[in-house]
Amino acid sequence: MTTETIFQAIQSSALSLYISHLNASAGAIAQLFHIVGFLLILTAVLLVNLRLIGLGLHRQPIPYLAKVTAPLVTYGLLLVLVSGLFIFLPSAALYFPNPAFWLKFILLAFALTIQWTLYRVTTRLEQPHPALAGITALLSITLWFGVAFAGRAIGFLN
Amino acid sequence: MTILEFLQQLHDSAFGTALRESLYMFPLLEGVHLIGLALSVGLIIATDLRLIGVFLKQVPVADVLHSLRPYVLTGFVITFITGILLLWAEGPRIWEIPVFPLKLALIVVAGINALWFEIKFGRRVAVWGGSPTLPTGAKFAGWVSLTSWTAVVICGRLIPYLEVTQH
Q: How far apart are CA B132 and CA B50, in angstroms?
């Protein structure tokens, strides 16, 4: 079974067919939740990373900022996951040949890996070494904004 | 000259045509528009949630406002410039979609609200911004900003959808 046939099977699954037979505005609503969820993630990540490189909220401890923004990341991820499935399932075969789709998920895999390893370790420190803080912020911002940018490109390459 | 005629002139100009027909420029502008938005609206929403009293409660409002302002403004400039260029290329088509004038009106509402907040509260933020519970007016401005910017993003994202159903 090739990846392409898997994608076709996903698209013709009962759940996918159910979603694609929903009201025509369901797709637009899913897109709205997708962008709102993504804004939550980017905002949280940006707030903490700006602090890491000393460009904002300097008076707040890094672990405090990381702690209060963590729920935004969690809820944002939940929103993009659920809305993303609504967008993806009914058109899986359409996304398969789209290079931006694959780029988005490769970047997402890296972004999540950094989020749950390097970012988690660095943001627990009151005063991380400037090099560590800088590398974490650079990777985190580049990867998360890269995911958003690649995601936006999907629609243009279809 | 009506707005539509003006947008038609931009659309027909050499620059407008080049933007529209370029394989990379248009998607690139859309992408940068989104990133500028994440910067400006994302951080504005963080500020609004602080004013409402649900986020960053231990951080003085002045700290949130002053730290984030340069990025909000940078993001806004990026979004504004890319937005103008997108309108330059596709103006007449976008203007005909009713949700677009609504989006502009909501941006004006958000702008007036921000100005009112700045005049009434922003200047004296050091006086009132330290406590976890904030003046009703500041909270109100936070709610207005949160709702209007969320509606702006929703209207913007709906543009391609309402266009498809129209044509």
A: 9
pLDDT higher than 70, residue B166: no
Q: Which of A131, A158, A9, A126 is nearest to A59 (CA)?
A: A126
User: Each residue of B22-35: pLDDT tens digit?
Assistant: 878 888 898 899 88
Structure token pair of residue A103: 């780029």
Low-confidence ranges of chain A (pLDDT < 70): 158
Q: Do A32 and B45 touch (CB under 8 A)?
A: no
Separation of alpha carbons A31 and A41, rounded Å: 15
The pLDDT, as a whole number, for residue B121 is: 84
Best residue of B154, B155, B163, B166 to probe chain A, by most A CBs closer than 10 Å? B154
49-88 in chain A: CB under 8 A from chain B? 50, 56-60, 64-65, 68
**More confident of the two residues B66 and B1:** B66
In the three-class reduction of DSSP (H, G, I as helix; E, B as strand; rest coil), residue B79 is classed as helix
CB-CB contact of A129 with A48 (8 Å): no
Interface contact B157-A32, CB threshold 8 A = yes
Separation between Cα atoms, residue A40 and residue A74, nearest integer Å:
9
Cβ atoms of A112 and A48 within 8 Å: the answer is no
Angle between helix axes B99-120 and B136-166 (nearest 10 degrees) is 170
Kindly state the DSSP code that residue B22 receives in the 8-state scheme: -
Q: What is the dihedral of CA B6, B7, B9, B12, to 10 degrees?
A: 180
Chain segment B81-110, per-residue pLDDT in tens: 999 999 899 888 888 888 999 999 999 999
